[in-house]
From TrEMBL:
GO terms for cellular component: plasma membrane. InterPro entries: AAA+_ATPase (IPR003593), ABC_AA/LPS_Transport (IPR051120), ABC_transporter-like_ATP-bd (IPR003439), BCA_ABC_TP_C (IPR032823), P-loop_NTPase (IPR027417). This is ABC transporter ATP-binding protein. It comes from Halorubrum ezzemoulense (Halorubrum chaoviator). Signal peptide: none annotated. Residues 27-276 form the ABC transporter domain. GO terms for molecular function: ATP binding; ATP hydrolysis activity. Keywords: ATP-binding, Nucleotide-binding, Transport. The lineage of its organism: Archaea, Methanobacteriati, Methanobacteriota, Stenosarchaea group, Halobacteria. PANTHER family: ABC TRANSPORTER ATP-BINDING PROTEIN (PTHR45772:SF1), CONSERVED COMPONENT OF ABC TRANSPORTER FOR NATURAL AMINO ACIDS-RELATED (PTHR45772). SUPFAM superfamilies: P-loop containing nucleoside triphosphate hydrolases (SSF52540). It holds the Pfam family BCA_ABC_TP_C.
Length: 277
């Protein structure tokens, strides 16, 4: 095969389908489309993330990355004909709290924390959702001192220790630096003992040291706990360093997928990024 033919074969592979079928994936979707009025935010996307994999989703602003995560975790209902799978189960018709209790954890770009509460209360409230499927009843439940509260407390304390948040446990969240707040968000996502973590720009706005810490915690969770990670991230250096596979979105669709070194060297991907970031 000539060098040109080899390059063509490689380029075609990057534009192929999922490497695991969505039905067999830890998290996956098939033919997912989401329209908001006249805007097609996600356009016929297939995704398959294998158990224990670390996958990054990249793409310019407005490419549909966050919308796709919101569909995977059940926050948005996609258009008819779209299918979402979690550990082999079709969960398209299942609500967000069902998916949260069956293995999906999620962090938020905009940090949806209870800012006037302390770190421990924030994580305990999420933990209580395991028994009570909505946030309000979970908050009430947390206050009633039932038997399971001691067990939940022990579990939450372990998470805080793991993420080096122990010293901040009684600190009001709004007074903490962004890097620590993002770690509290991560702690909350771990409170329901997920198999799959969806991370929406978990390193956005962080200093170099804070980013380094976040990468260290995510790497430990991935390698030691075997968590499957799906991460939206703009920093291509971080993406290439940590993820096993990478997906590039543009205008709602997937334009390339594969190992990060191959995807980032692809001329079509380079073109999408030129002048965008
Ligand atoms: N709730 C909504 N209502 C209407 N339009 C929306 C909504 N959410 C997203 N969109 C639109 O869908 C498109 C995709 O947005 P989305 O936030 O998913 O992109 P993104 O790739 O995550 O961008 P960014 O990197 O800026 O976060 C955009 O045109 C956006 O304006």
């Amino acid at each position: 095969m000539s060098a040109d033919q080899e390059a063509e074969t490689r380029a075609a592979a990057l534009r192929g389908g999922t490497h695991v079928s969505p039905e067999d994936a830890a998290i996956g979707c098939r033919n997912v489309t989401k329209t908001f009025g006249s805007i097609t935010a996600v356009d016929d996307v297939d995704l398959g993330v294998a158990d224990g994999e670390w996958v990054s989703i990249v793409g310019p602003n407005g490419a549909g990355k966050t919308t796709l995560l919101n569909i995977l975790n059940g926050f948005y209902t996609p258009d008819a004909g779209s299918e979402v799978f979690l550990n082999g189960e079709e969960v398209s018709g299942r609500p967000e709290h069902y998916r949260a209790r069956h293995g999906i954890g999620r962090t938020f770009q905009g940090l949806e924390l209870f800012e006037s509460e302390d770190v421990l209360e924030n994580v305990m409230t999420t933990r209580a959702v395991a028994e009570r499927p909505n946030v309000l009843s979970a908050m009430l439940y947390y206050g009633t001192g039932r038997k399971t509260e001691a067990e939940n407390m022990r579990f939450v304390e372990e998470i805080l220790d793991y993420l080096e948040l122990w010293e901040h446990r009684h600190t009001t969240v709004s007074t903490l630096p962004l890097g620590v707040q993002r770690r509290v968000d991560l702690a909350r996502s771990l409170a329901l003992e997920p198999d799959v973590l969806l991370l929406d720009e978990a390193m956005s706005g962080l200093t170099f040291d804070e980013k380094y810490d976040m990468i260290r915690f995510l790497t430990d969770l991935h390698e030691e706990e075997g968590l499957t990670l799906v991460m939206i991230e703009h920093d291509l250096e971080v993406v290439t360093a940590v993820s096993e596979r990478m997906i590039v979105m543009q205008k709602g669709g997937v334009i390339a997928r594969g190992p990060p070194e191959e995807v980032t060297n692809d001329p079509e991907v380079a073109r999408v990024y030129t002048g965008v970031e």
